Amino acid sequence: MTTRKADQRTKERRWNVFKIGRIWWLSVTVNGLRQRVSTGTSSKNLAMKIQDKVRGEILEGKWFGKKDEEPFKDYAERWNKTKVGIKKATQISYRGILDNHLLPHFGELVISGIQRKHIQDFVGKKFDEGRLSHKTLKNVLVCLHQILGDAEVDGLIARNPYLKIEMPKENGDGIRRGKFKGDYLSTNEIRVFLDSCEPKTYPLFYTAIFTGMRRGELLGLEWDDIDWVSKQIHVRRSLYKGRPQAPKSEYSVRAIDMGSRLVKVIKEHRIKQNEIRLKAWKNWINNDFVFCQDDGTSLDGDNLYHRDFQRTLKRAGLRHIRIHDLRHTFASILISSGHNPKYIQNQMGHGSIQITMDLYGHLMEEVRTGAADRTEDFVFGQSESKFCQGQEKGVTASAATP
Question: Which 8-state DSSP code applies to residue 248?
Fold first, then answer.
């Protein structure tokens, strides 16, 4: 009888201990509520001892359920730091995916609390924003799947919730068209906007319009990133909440060509910044930022938007737009200037030409009108083109004569 009871207790114990991956878990029932608790060990003997300890605490009323669990952001940061044997470009890509996509959405969630519906909502949100190509979104989800998979192996979650996630369907050409939801300034509006800028913000907004740099990239720009000889700005970092971070993706690390006017604007800005630096003297904090506060510290992105950008729009009498729309303005300038899509892709820092076409294909259609005439004009000149037009009118008139 004693042996039978012992066997029963053993079965009960085995039923309450199970293995997921290499980690042993406990199935604990408290006040009628069943919970899964990770022992954090791959040793079965140690897991059994932990189980006995938990049972004792439950009987004594000292066990109150799960302790505070690790947020997604903490585990994801640790996961990223421990990734070894991967290329530098992959590291940059992971950093950009975390900073720009995963941490803003999942960061504050307890990692064991992330469910399939959270991931599906994330996919839907990204698709509706229309800023990511199907391939880029897939790369983001691969990174998320890896993080959650490693969390399962490490015993932080019982099961990886990334299961049968439905991806939005794309068109047959692989491009999601009609998703552009931004705005951009016309040629006349650009002049009005710049004329309304205060001297302090003029260089920054001029640079934004004629480089297409993102807000964080502008705030993180350093003087060493500017190549005066080749007339290029090298985008190497972004700034978020005063902290430097990797650009949005590996393709965002790029060299942007500068026009002569932009070179002049930035050089004049540097002279004025040096004057401010001399006045500040010992109070100057040398961060080497191109655009900064009067003491050398970084600009605040929110203040730049609310205090400077919106006030400039109001003075100019222009509609409400975002700072990011200055980036779209740069793209519209490149397209209207007749640059080829591949050059536009490189200057914008897009991962593929499909993204460029997805966002700005409708603008390219607008400038397509008259493209054939401009091609012939390049060879024969406009005078012969006008002559041909005159002949066409003559033929039409002749045909119309009875």
Answer: S
